[in-house]
Amino acid sequence: MSSTDQMSFLQHLEELRWRVIRSAIAILVFASAAFVFKGIIFDQIILAPKKADFITYRAMCAVSQKVGMADGLCVTADFELQNISMSGQFTSHIVVSIIAGIILAFPYVFFQLWSFVRPGLKDKEQNTARGVVFFTSLLFLSGVAFGYFLIAPLSIQFLGGYKVSDQVDNIITLNSFITTITSTTLASGIVFQLPMVIYFLAKIGLVTPQSLKAYRKHALVGVLILAAIITPPDITSQILVTLPLVVLYEISIHIARIVVKKAKRNELKSYNS
């Protein structure tokens, strides 16, 4: 029995406190770096999707020309942003820096959380959950990239250029623009955790491959609703977002199948021994 098994409730709280402190320090360090290098964070990252030469728009234009749609998918809008609050730009600078700190520090923060939970698991459970920090971080960062390079640009170009009448001009505020970028990016990072969530639910027996298959149609409807919420209301954007989510669901079914097979194999071994 390890020393962590002998820890009192207050000692567990003390350990959790230090884990939280370390995580907060990591976020603060990355957030401070993002605050200092605001030229890179804003000019080359946050504000890049509003420009017509953004990598996603160039790729869409190239695909459009290759499939014979001419300039059908090419983006030409390059709108201006404005700030209407005295402290608006400074507040936006702080908010973006904190969000950047959270994203960059996520692997370390999750490692601290897992290090606190891991001693409470049995040896067999620890072995089966090996690599959870790597895969959770990989999925989160992949989701962030997906949101930044696909969902956010499509949302910005559709909503930023949409008009109910030529008599009404779009005057986009900095706060509104940043909210669109950060919310879609973080939401995508969270949604991409679906395979890991299914993995742990399958481990504790709450879901099975059969139940996931049985509710596949319901899940598809849920995916379509989610895609409609986090994307602009046009069919192209919703399809581009729906396809990866459907793939993630199918991967989750495969993961649940592997977990169930391993559990049955271990039960058989225990029975034979």
TrEMBL record:
Annotated localization: Cell membrane; Membrane
Keywords, ordered alphabetically: Cell membrane, Membrane, Protein transport, Translocation, Transmembrane, Transmembrane helix, Transport
GO biological process entries: intracellular protein transmembrane transport; protein transport by the Tat complex
GO CC terms of this entry: TAT protein transport complex
Record's bilayer topology term: Multi-pass membrane protein
Superkingdom classification of source: Bacteria
Subcellular location, principal: membrane
Subunit structure: Forms a complex with TatA.
Protein name as catalogued: Sec-independent protein translocase protein TatC
Organism: Cryomorpha ignava
Classification of source organism: Bacteria, Pseudomonadati, Bacteroidota, Flavobacteriia, Flavobacteriales
Primary gene name: tatC
